[in-house]
Amino acid sequence: MASNKPRILQGTRDMMWSLVALLVLCMLIAAIASQCEFKPGGPTAGPAPTFDIDAGLDYDAKELGFPIRHPEVPEDWQPNSGSRSIISGAEGGDSSTVGFITPGGRYVRFTQSDAGEDELVRFVAGGPRTATDVRAIDGRDWVVYGGEDVEAIWVSDFGDVRILIGGSGDQEEFTLLAAAAGRAEPLQS
Fold it and tell me: Model pTM greater than 0.90?
């Protein structure tokens, strides 16, 4: 009959050897699956995803019931995302969002919607926000929803559509995008 140590006699040394064996087994499986790598210098930023903004906004212009604008941003702004959402609420509606990565590595969101301003801000911010400022850019007022430790949101009412600018961009980038939105003509639907 084999003589096994009673459980009470197993010590930390036995436990450590078991953990070492388990750790080696986990690393072997991860290496075989190619799901991990060792980088002594830390992580590096990979390429930002790309998005065909022309096709995305053209499609939204044909499908959504409000005017869609294509703002002309600097060439070094990279479109990296696009989405459509339905905003609920008393003044809810559809929305079209495209995102850009600026040369400074910041994300700037450009959302167009036929929803009311309060519902649009609540949808993007994840809750209610209070207006903190108003900026006049190229003859158009932009209501600023800011605060401590929150990303700024700028909204302007274009009559049949509300345009929202948000993200981690700075004031200069928001101003540039707001001016581009004011100059943009609605796309053909």
Answer: no
User: In the beta sheet, which residues pair with residue 101?
Assistant: 78, 107
Q: Are strands 107-113 and 131-137 parallel, antiparallel or unpaired?
A: unpaired
CATH 3.40.50.1260 fits 53-183, yes or no: no
Mean predicted confidence (pLDDT) in 71-78: 96
181's tokens: 């939105």
Report residue 76 as tokens.
């070094």
SS3 content of the chain, % helix, strand, coil (to 5): 30, 30, 40
Looking at residues 85-89, what average pLDDT do you find?
91
Domains of the chain, residue spans: 53-183
CA dist., res. 183 & res. 139, Å (int): 11
Q: Where does 90-130 show beta strands of DSSP type E?
A: 93-101, 107-113
Residue with tokens 């639907």: 189
- Distance from chain centroid for Cα 16: 44
Q: Residue 92, SS3?
A: coil
Residue 80 CB neighbours (<10 A): 16
Average pLDDT over residues 155-169: 95
Average pLDDT across the chain, whole number: 90
